[in-house]
Write a structure and sequence with these properties.
With 317 residues, the chain is α/β, with parallel strands linked by helices. The chain is built from 13 helices and eleven strands. The chain binds calcium ion.
């Protein structure tokens, strides 16, 4: 079995504000194999690296552009031009309602200067590191909320695929995985948009939990066979692989890992967080031991790519 890959989730997001270039540089320095990009569009149709379709959980948009929220009170990236978005300052993730940080021990809201950037800029940054460090850091772009973008009049998948093609990612040999939660859209990327890259189907917990209920093994197989028809792997939440972690260190695995491997799919679960372990997991190391050592997953999204790199190098290299 090949050594599992370390995917830096939004960069080294356990240490620096997510999706900033410093967070990506730190992840590269920590030895991540892949750097993740979540992608949404601006009003002028430019793909930018941002986790939410909203700007108000990681930037100062509400202070800078009062009055530009929609009736639901939220500030949407697609309502702002790239030029406007470039003026925003990025911070560690916080609640748009209370202003409080989501992870209290992470990078503080100090006066530092982090900004947003485009997908093309991040790819150029990664390729620059590949050259200067004589390494191949992979990219792992996620198409966010294609149905929302379509309602706003934009075909985000076609736009993202064009940027990847122009950046030289043109086959499964490239260090690039494309990911998306929307199953019909992911399939469309392969079949209609002719995506030539490795594709990961992200799994929604609520949809797949039902398929993992005991009497529905045939349904699980059929669902995975369908995914294997267009994708190279799955990206499940850890909770779909392990139904229960017990205080004594044992666990109950679902059928998903074995079934997905049976269908030839790689498994890249999310998200490893030292500061947000699943209930009853005694340690971050134990969680990694269960996933990599016992369930044999092929990689994982980690907010702490240094710790995941170190565990894999110590135990599996
Ligand atoms: Ca993501």
């Amino acid at each position: 079995m090949p050594t599992p890959i370390v995917i830096a989730h939004r960069g080294a997001s356990g240490y620096l504000p997510e999706h900033t270039l410093p967070a990506k540089a730190l992840a590269a320095g920590m030895g991540a194999d892949y750097l993740e990009q979540d992608v949404v569009l601006t009003r002028d149709g430019v793909p930018i690296v941002l986790h939410d379709i909203h700007l108000d959980t990681v930037t100062d948009v509400a202070e800078r552009f009062p009055g530009r929220a929609r009736p639901d009170g939220r500030y949407y990236a697609i309502d702002f031009t790239l030029e406007e978005i470039r003026t925003l300052l990025v911070r560690e993730r916080f609640s748009h309602k209370t202003g409080q940080p989501v992870f209290s021990k992470r990078f503080p809201h100090v006066a530092s200067r982090f900004t947003l950037h485009t997908l093309a800029e991040e790819i150029a940054f990664v390729q620059g590191l590949n050259r200067s460090m004589s390494r191949t850091f992979g990219i792992y772009p996620e198409i966010k909320q294609p149905a929302f973008h379509r309602r706003e009049g934009q075909d985000i998948s076609a736009i993202v695929l064009r940027v990847l093609e122009e950046s030289g990612y043109r086959s499964k040999e490239e260090a690039c995985y494309l990911q998306c939660f929307d199953e019909p859209e992911t399939e469309r990327c392969r079949r209609e948009l002719k995506c030539p890259l490795k594709i990961i189907q992200l799994l929604e917990e609520k949809d797949w939990k039902l398929l993992l209920a005991a009497p529905r093994r045939g349904d699980l197989d059929a669902a995975l066979a369908k995914v294997a028809g267009y994708a190279d792997g799955i990206g499940p939440p850890v909770s779909l692989l392990v139904s229960e972690f017990r205080a004594d260190g044992t666990f109950a695995a679902t059928e998903l890992a074995a079934a997905a491997h049976h269908h030839g799919l790689v498994i890249h679960p999310w998200t490893l967080r030292r500061d947000e372990l699943p209930k009853s997991v005694p340690s971050f190391d134990r969680q990694m031991e269960i996933l990599f050592g016992e369930l044999r997953v092929d990689g994982a999204f980690s907010d702490f790519p240094d710790l995941t790199r170190q565990w894999i190098d110590r135990r599996m290299a």
